[in-house]
Design a protein that fits this description.
With 146 residues, the chain is of the alpha+beta class. 25% of the residues lie in helices and 29% in strands. Mean pLDDT is 80; it is low at 18-32.
């Protein structure tokens, strides 16, 4: 039996597709996405953008049934105080997991100030909706100019 010897030309022909694939993946491959947004200039501006704001204790978090990047999880909150919007004893708020979609997780039993935006399927929050200022600044903004 003869020994298989590849010529330099045949080796180059075999390597070329792999080299091209590697180069393409390095140039056009998946990139790391980051959560980015423009921070509000004031509590008043932030509150104005929100549909509601409340202080609530996280009761439970579970999958929402949506897997499209708009509310993958839903957390139920026991509302202790409403700063803006319709008062309610409980609120279910959609959010995503932490990552590129600006999601976050709420620890059961912990109390949070939450700003939400109306989405066709309910209220939604994310990293960009979390308070950037002391709650007292949002309280003053909710009362309006003095």
């Amino acid at each position: 039996m003869g020994q298989f010897l590849a010529s330099p030309l045949s080796v180059a022909k075999m390597i070329k597709p792999f080299a091209l694939a590697l180069l393409t993946s390095l140039i056009f491959g998946p990139t790391a996405e980051a959560c980015s947004f423009i921070a509000p200039k004031s509590a008043a501006a932030h509150l104005k953008r929100a549909d509601a704001m409340f202080i609530g204790r996280a009761l439970k978090t579970q999958p929402s049934g949506y897997a499209d990047g708009f509310g993958e999880l839903v957390t139920t909150f026991a509302v202790t105080r409403t700063i803006k919007g319709e008062p309610a004893r409980r609120r279910e708020v959609l959010h995503d997991r932490p990552g590129a979609t600006c999601g976050l997780l709420f620890e059961t039993g912990k109390t949070y100030p939450i700003l939400t935006h109306k989405l066709g399927r309910g209220e939604m929050t994310g990293t960009s909706s979390m308070p950037f200022f002391p709650v007292s600044d949002y309280d003053r903004a909710a009362k309006g100019p003095v």
